[in-house]
Every structure is written in structure tokens, then in C-alpha cells.
Specification:
- With about 90 residues, this protein is mainly alpha-helical.
- It has one domain: Helix Hairpins, CATH 1.10.287.
- Helices cover about 80% and strands about 0% of the residues.
- The chain is globular, with a radius of gyration of 16 Å.
Length: about 90
């Protein structure tokens, strides 16, 4: 698996998922919306991993490497987004 190119289409898709999550905030706590989005991402990524294999044996063999890849990607993206929030924190919370 390789890193995904962050082009306009990538950002538009990400924004559409965020907009959908935001629609649930009137009825649910942000932490519950977040947990649901995280579960959905995990479920979809499990599908992507399984769909990329040709056999159950291959899926078993590649499972740990795929998990490590997605964990590293999530950590990198979370850190990047938290750094952006910290850089704007005083502006947004004053």
C-alpha cells in the first residue's frame, strides 16, 4: 500500500465525510459521532484490505502489515490535524 495523493478530490471527499458527521451533532455528543466515524473507517478499511487479497491465506499473511500501515497513517494524520488546531487555537478560542 502506498500513501494517498492529497489532491482536490481527496480533500473534497474528506470534507464530505466531515460534513456528514457534523449532521449528527444535533442529536449526538461529538465523542459518539467520532467513535462511529472511527468504527466506519475501520470497517471500510478492513473491506479494502480483504478486497486487495486473492485468498484467505494471503489475507492472513498480510493482516499485521496492513494493520501497522493503517495505524501509522492514522497517527500521522491525527498528529498533523492536532498541530493545525494548536497553531490556530488562540485565534479560534478568544
Amino acid at each position: 500500500m502506498s500513501d494517498v495523493t492529497r489532491d482536490k478530490q481527496f480533500w473534497d471527499m474528506a470534507d464530505s465525510f466531515i460534513q456528514l458527521a457534523n449532521t449528527h451533532l444535533d442529536a449526538e455528543k461529538p465523542s459518539r459521532v467520532s467513535a462511529s466515524a472511527l468504527f466506519a473507517a475501520a470497517r471500510f478499511n478492513a473491506f479494502v484490505i480483504a478486497a486487495a487479497t486473492e485468498s484467505k491465506a494471503q489475507l492472513i499473511a498480510e493482516k499485521e502489515a496492513a494493520i501497522a500501515y493503517f495505524l501509522a497513517q492514522y497517527e500521522s494524520m491525527l498528529r498533523e490535524n492536532l498541530d493545525e488546531h494548536m497553531a490556530r487555537y488562540d485565534q479560534q478560542n478568544s
